[in-house]
Write a structure and sequence with these properties.
mainly alpha, two-stranded antiparallel sheet, 10 helices, globular
Length: 249
């Protein structure tokens, strides 16, 4: 049965509620042994942030601001991809993420020092220096700290979708052209809300996209917990929302 965008979005909203209930549980009870807890802890931070982004996308859509949710959807793709990475590479992914954090933290320290506007107090400076001095081992997963590499590895059109959302998220012609039409020789049309012409509306299924990204992020986090405790609930949510075929169908 073909569903309209409105019907898909309605199912997605119901699915989002189901995922929210899972994340409200005492997740700490499912934590793995301390020797294996790093991917789990990082994963929780990512999935919690991913959930809030999904809620933001749905809220913006309800207020007619689906176009403006492009940065949120783009970030959701990144969070989901990193959760998939943790589920696949575990400790190697955690080390690579730490190494990437060390690099970006170093760039921030250099920017503060070079800008000569802000300053670190002693305690913060000591932490920054400790991060810079830490020895983080390299491994074969390091290349996936680059978002393009990671999305290319995961496939399923994620790199293409992320690149499209990037165009809408950053200032430039791609973002601006939704608000004007200069294709006619007679007059230029200016709009105060986005128009897409003959191109498909990228925001029509924004809540469904948000739910789908959250679902696959939560599914990856489930893989980080011993015995994958949320599997039955995730299977039920996937069937109810149409992500997976119903057992009776």
């Amino acid at each position: 049965m073909d569903l309209s965008p409105e019907q898909r979005n309605e199912r997605a909203t119901q699915g989002l509620q189901g995922l929210t209930e899972l994340l409200k549980q005492d997740v700490g009870q499912y934590a793995p042994a301390e020797s294996e807890h790093r991917p789990f802890v990082i994963g929780w931070g990512l999935v919690a942030a991913l959930h809030r982004q999904a809620c933001a996308v749905v809220l913006l859509h309800r207020h007619g601001l689906g176009h403006e949710a492009a940065p949120n959807r783009r970030l959701m793709i990144e969070y989901m991809a990193q959760l998939q990475w943790l589920a696949r590479d575990g400790e190697d992914a955690a080390d690579s993420m730490n190494k990437a954090f060390q690099y970006t933290h170093g760039r921030l320290r250099k920017a503060v020092d070079a800008g000569d506007v802000f300053t670190y107090d002693r305690e913060v400076a000591a932490v920054a220096d400790a991060v810079a001095a830490a020895v983080v081992p390299s491994n074969s997963a390091n290349e996936f700290a680059a978002t393009g590499k990671l999305l290319g590895r995961l496939g399923n059109g994620l790199l293409e979708i992320w690149t499209s959302e990037t165009q809408l998220s950053h200032s430039g012609i791609a973002a601006a052209r939704a608000f004007f039409d200069d294709s006619s020789d007679e007059a230029v049309r200016l709009y105060d809300s986005p128009r897409y012409g003959k191109a498909p509306n990228p925001n029509e299924l924004s809540p469904f996209v948000a739910f789908m990204l959250l679902y696959f992020g939560v599914e990856a986090f489930n893989d980080l917990m011993p015995d994958k405790p949320w599997t039955p609930q995730l299977e039920r949510i996937a069937r109810q929302t149409g992500l997976k075929p119903d057992e009776d169908g």
